[in-house]
């Protein structure tokens, strides 16, 4: 007889910590909530916060690997002063007092001589409302963040068209959409919310269509993949628009009520008003009233525009925007048969996708029994939804035709009536905001005083360009000039090139934060490294002083004169603010903080606190009291006590002395404590009757005013036709007091069309495409973000090196096999790198992961690390400038409207390398590491 076994208890979930501290992730731009498990005062484990509105407990590999980012051997340890040549990496540690005095010694005199000689540019930081305020207080016009080489085309096109764009401005209605299309989306941005949303779509059986030259990540799980030819997305989208117009499948009611489709355009030829809207006595655009047939202000209660009518005056007919659109997009040039060869998408497939869009939008309409009141006071008993939604990112943005392509996609959504409706695209508070609710750019410099207003903004016409009295650019990056009039995020990728050339003028000090310009944050690494080390005839550096702040020993560190070491994201305060880049979702306004869950074990300081200390030392307005004492002790003090306008500050939650203020209220000394108690975030949900139709919903407008999003109700209509663009065309035609240089008139006239158009990417026109027939792209992998991930001991195990991926067509044409290298050339440079076969590619496109390759000596990696030996960048093949055109000028390799870096226009040729090099080429000599090398094995035991 067998004995009865003992009742053994197994602890399947032993405690991994003795305390949990909740904050916000910084391993990508999602800003998910995380639980940081602490053991004996050290970080032991990171998991998702299930109560957080962004990720609801989901955490990706990047987020979990944050522990290895925090303990990375490459962390800077103390302020550094360069003692060797630039680029050598030779430094000596100094005290913070000495570091701040050095910085003030360079910056202070400039402020009292010419503040423009300081250029202050930041990378992907999340405190831009603060860093821009610092630059404005200092008085330099030369400030911007990284958007110009990221996705300004997407952001600016969305705001000029409808008051917001994809990603941080809005999201699909994941719970109701039935057809979802992605355009040019890689996986590094917004990955957890998208993955959660895609899971919902898959669970409900909704259809997903991915439009991308590369089938990876999200496109790999799409129901249908459209392997489009790079740079032709706009042509493909306008062919869809052509089919919708041809079939009469557009939402006329939506267009009449909520867009400027009914605005009457002045068509009298050759006048200063040609192409502008007819305006009445109030100055408001006019529409033709359906009932009366007469002109009326567009926002008159009870007036519904007649899209089919025309207005005749003094023998001249004037038509509404809708008729101009129909005339343009019904043209044969946008017919599927006319665009199929260039896009790589068959005409039948284009027609099929257009028919599917129309069917889902209009035959599978969603109706919610939710009463609401519109901006004109009309009451509605239902909310009508079109369950088609889109998402797009850098893939369609980073082209020289990217602004118009992004505009085309927004117009496609609007024609379907699928924006701010159930099942469609939804805005996230504080968006939507029309372009004229944003500031215009300011460049008014006063020696010893602040700038006359915000640096960045949205121009309404030539009168807002950032030009000096003589017509020359006022900014070092030439933002808001005739070369790129609507450059809302600035042109960070042009700062070093322009400063080196002294065009439009020379600067003295370049101050960068978290912008790895000496490697993968510039368009051409080789050229930028040369410019940073170049000397003049006197033996002095062409750019005299470079100050850099980073948390890690990146490639850029070696090229700076002074290093101000930042903390890791677990060691500092950050404010993810409604004034900046909030964590809002469509159903609620929300913001968040980071806070020091651990104290630094090195002599480092949070960069924002360092800016406050510099501001105090220089006596900047807003940083000091009347007696010259510090107004804010540190960045945490600023977060709590700064007010951008009365009652509105960096954080919206728990305002007022009693802590009950939501969005508005006096500073609350206990505010940060309340955020920490609540998991690091605050959220206030939008009322149900305000959930949709936000730009026109009176309930939403009232709620937004109460929450400090607006000071007054601000309803508006979408701009299918962007009138400010027509004003620039008029200037190019010779009208107005402010005129472009003659060499830019043709470009402005051709590209600044107020209705979306498509034109060939500039590199297609400027290089011999027979010699360079292949498109070359980079994407960032889902498991890494910017350049941070490849120093991370966990993430390196996923991708320790990168390959150049070749489609089957090119692989077989050249007889490649596994282990081979290829030499890839552009008109700008040449690389020799390892290749691999990828069947899910457009047949004329090659690609690789970006930011895997590292410079030897950087990031505390061993010089034989695969990232340093085998990894590589495509940047060596790209240039900030287009190839010479023979006109004596070098044109920026950017979108001519916004200045967006045209990364993805690159054309190359490829050949099999006859001999396998010892490492990827070009290879650079090692730089000396100020932090040494990390251990061979990175292991921790808790």
TrEMBL record:
Cellular location of this protein? Cell envelope
UniProt entry tagged with the keyword 4Fe-4S? yes
Coarsely, its chief localization is other
Which keywords has UniProt assigned to this entry? 4Fe-4S, Iron, Iron-sulfur, Metal-binding, Oxidoreductase
Instruction: Please verify whether the record's keywords include rRNA-binding.
Output: no
Q: Output the superkingdom of the source species.
A: Bacteria
GO molecular function annotation: 4 iron, 4 sulfur cluster binding; metal ion binding; oxidoreductase activity
Residue ranges, annotated region (Disordered): 914-942
Cofactor (UniProt): [4Fe-4S] cluster
User: Cross-referenced Pfam families, in alphabetical order?
Assistant: Molybdop_Fe4S4, Molybdopterin
For the 4Fe-4S Mo/W bis-MGD-type domain, which residue ranges apply?
18-74
Q: Which GO terms describe its cellular component?
A: cell envelope
InterPro entries with a match to the protein in the record = Asp_de-COase-like_dom_sf (IPR009010), Mopterin_OxRdtase (IPR006656), Mopterin_OxRdtase_4Fe-4S_dom (IPR006963)
Q: Which SUPFAM superfamilies match?
A: ADC-like, Formate dehydrogenase/DMSO reductase, domains 1-3
UniProt record similarity statement: Belongs to the prokaryotic molybdopterin-containing oxidoreductase family.
Question: Can you say what this protein is called?
Answer: Polysulfide reductase chain A
């Amino acid at each position: 007889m067998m004995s009865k076994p003992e009742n053994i208890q197994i602890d399947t979930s032993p405690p991994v910590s003795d305390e949990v501290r909740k904050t916000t992730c910084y391993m990508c731009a999602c800003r998910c909530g995380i639980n940081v498990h602490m053991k004996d005062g050290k970080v032991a484990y990171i998991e998702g916060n299930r109560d957080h509105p962004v990720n609801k407990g989901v955490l990706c590999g990047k987020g979990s690997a944050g522990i290895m980012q925090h303990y990375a051997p490459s962390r800077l340890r103390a302020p550094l002063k360069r003692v060797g040549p630039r680029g050598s990496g030779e430094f000596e540690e100094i005290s913070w007092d000495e570091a701040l005095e050095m910085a003030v010694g360079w910056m202070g005199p400039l402020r009292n001589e010419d503040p423009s000689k300081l250029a202050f540019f930041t990378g992907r930081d999340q405190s831009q409302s603060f860093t821009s305020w610092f630059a404005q207080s200092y008085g330099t016009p030369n400030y911007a963040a990284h958007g110009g080489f990221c996705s300004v085309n997407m952001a600016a096109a969305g705001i000029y068209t409808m008051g917001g764009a994809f990603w941080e401005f809005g999201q699909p209605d994941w719970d109701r959409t039935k057809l979802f299309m992605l355009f040019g989306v890689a996986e590094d941005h917004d990955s957890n919310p998208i993955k959660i949303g895609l899971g919902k779509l898959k669970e409900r059986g909704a259809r997903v269509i991915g439009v991308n030259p590369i089938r990876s990540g999200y496109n790999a799980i799409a129901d249908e993949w459209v392997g489009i030819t790079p740079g032709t997305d706009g042509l493909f989208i306008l062919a869809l628009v052509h089919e919708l117009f041809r079939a009469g499948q557009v939402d006329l009611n939506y267009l009449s009520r909520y867009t400027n489709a009914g605005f009457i355009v002045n068509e009298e030829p050759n006048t200063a008003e040609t192409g502008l809207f007819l305006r009445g006595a109030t100055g408001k655009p006019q529409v033709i009233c359906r009932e009366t047939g007469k002109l009326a202000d567009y926002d008159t209660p009870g007036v519904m525009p007649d899209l089919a009518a025309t207005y005749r005056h003094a023998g001249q007919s004037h038509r509404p925007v809708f008729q101009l659109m129909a005339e343009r997009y019904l043209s044969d040039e946008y017919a599927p048969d006319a665009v199929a060869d260039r896009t790589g998408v068959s005409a039948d497939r284009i027609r099929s996708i257009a028919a599917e869009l129309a069917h889902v939008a209009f035959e599978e309409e969603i109706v919610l029994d939710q009463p609401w009141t519109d901006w004109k006071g009309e009451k509605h008993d239902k909310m009508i939804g079109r369950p088609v939604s889109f998402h797009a990112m850098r893939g369609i943005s980073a082209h020289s035709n990217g602004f118009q392509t992004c505009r085309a996609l927004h117009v496609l959504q609007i024609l379907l009536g699928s924006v701010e409706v159930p099942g469609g695209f939804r805005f996230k508070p504080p968006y939507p905001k029309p372009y004229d609710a944003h500031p215009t750019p300011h460049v008014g410099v006063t020696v010893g005083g602040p700038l006359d207003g915000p640096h960045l903004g949205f121009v309404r016409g030539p009168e807002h360009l950032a030009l000096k009295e003589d017509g020359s650019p006022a900014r070092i990056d030439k933002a808001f000039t005739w070369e790129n009039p609507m450059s809302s995020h600035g042109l960070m990728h042009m700062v070093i090139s322009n400063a080196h050339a002294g065009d439009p003028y020379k600067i003295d000090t370049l101050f960068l934060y978290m912008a790895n310009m000496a490697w993968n944050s510039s368009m051409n690494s080789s050229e930028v490294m040369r410019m940073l080390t170049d000397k003049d005839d006197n033996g002095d550096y062409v750019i005299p002083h470079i100050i850099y702040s980073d948390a890690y020993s990146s490639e850029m560190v070696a090229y700076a004169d002074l290093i101000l070491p930042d903390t890791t994201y677990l060691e500092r305060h950050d404010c993810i603010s409604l004034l900046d880049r909030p964590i809002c979702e469509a159903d609620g306004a929300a913001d968040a903080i980071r806070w020091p869950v651990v104290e630094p074990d090195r002599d480092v300081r949070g960069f924002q606190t360092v800016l406050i200390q510099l501001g105090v030392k220089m006596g900047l307005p807003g940083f000091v009291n009347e007696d010259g004492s510090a107004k804010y002790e540190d960045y945490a003090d600023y977060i709590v006590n700064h007010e951008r306008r009365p009652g509105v500050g960096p954080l919206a939650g728990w305002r007022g002395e009693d802590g009950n203020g939501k969005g508005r209220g006096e500073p609350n000394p206990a505010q940060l404590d309340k955020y920490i108690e609540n998991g690091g975030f605050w959220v206030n949900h939008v009322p149900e009757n305000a959930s949709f139709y936000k730009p026109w919903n009176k309930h939403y407008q009232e709620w937004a005013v109460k929450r400090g999003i607006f000071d007054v109700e601000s309803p508006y209509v979408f701009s299918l036709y962007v009138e400010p663009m027509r004003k620039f065309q008029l200037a190019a035609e010779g009208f107005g007091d402010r005129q472009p240089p003659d060499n830019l008139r043709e470009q402005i006239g051709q590209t600044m069309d107020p209705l979306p158009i498509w034109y060939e990417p500039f590199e297609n026109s400027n290089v011999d495409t027979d010699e360079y027939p292949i498109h070359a792209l980079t994407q960032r992998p889902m498991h890494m973000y910017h350049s941070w991930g490849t120093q991370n001991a966990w993430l390196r195990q996923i991708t320790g090196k990168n390959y150049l991926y070749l489609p089957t067509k090119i692989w077989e044409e050249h007889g490649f096999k596994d282990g081979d290298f290829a030499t890839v050339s552009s008109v700008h440079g040449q690389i020799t790198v390892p290749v691999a076969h990828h069947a899910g590619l457009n047949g004329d496109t090659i690609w690789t992961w970006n930011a895997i390759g590292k410079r030897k000596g950087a990031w505390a990696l061993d010089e034989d690390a695969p990232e340093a030996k085998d990894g590589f960048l495509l940047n060596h093949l790209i240039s900030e400038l287009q190839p010479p055109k023979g006109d004596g000028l070098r044109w920026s390799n950017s979108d001519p409207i916004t200045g967006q870096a045209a990364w993805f226009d690159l054309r190359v040729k490829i050949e099999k390398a006859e001999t396998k090099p010892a490492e990827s080429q070009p290879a650079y000599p090692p730089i000396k590491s100020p932090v040494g090398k990390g251990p061979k094995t990175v292991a921790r035991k808790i």
